[in-house]
Design a protein that fits this description.
single chain, 6 helices
């Protein structure tokens, strides 16, 4: 049973890492669950309750920042809500049609389309789209770094 739980936790950690790039998979949450499963499998020895509570708080923070970062990027560069939503849609479509780079290009193209729908033209729409794009990249980078650190602690606790 212990080996099964350890393998399940490792699979969750890897899916969590992939979930940092695929928007519909909650990467940080799955990675955190991997730590909980490993702790349970090893009779709560590898990680202290304080460590798990800190990681739980960071999981919540990183997950929230992933949603807030594109909005901050859009506001900083004059973007609209339409630009943010179309950027997310472009990211999702881009992943399916041109993986993995489609996510980045789709987010940028979606943001430009959203800004055009909001009535912005030319340089103004490009600038706003750039803000949304930067926000998406920052959010994804934060999630990747966080899930990578969790995977490191997971593997370290195995040995």
């Amino acid at each position: 049973m212990t080996i099964t739980l350890i393998v399940l936790g490792l699979i969750l950690a890897l899916i969590g890492l992939a979930g940092c790039i695929i928007p519909v998979i909650p990467g940080p949450v799955l990675s955190f669950l991997a730590l909980i499963i490993l702790s349970f499998a090893k009779d709560w020895e590898p990680f202290s309750s304080t460590f798990l509570m800190i990681i739980a708080g960071l999981t919540l923070l990183v997950s929230l920042l992933d949603y807030v970062a594109p909005v901050f990027g859009a506001k900083k560069y004059g973007g609209s809500k339409s630009g943010v939503w179309c950027s997310v849609l472009g990211m999702v479509l881009g992943i399916f049609f041109f993986p993995p780079w489609g996510m980045l290009f789709g987010a940028f193209a979606g943001a430009i389309a959203g800004e055009w729908l909001a009535g912005k033209e030319g340089r103004e729409s490009l600038q706003a789209a750039w803000g949304v794009f930067v926000g998406n990249v920052v959010g994804t980078g934060l999630k990747l770094a966080f899930c990578g650190v969790i995977l490191f602690f997971y593997i370290k606790a195995l040995f």
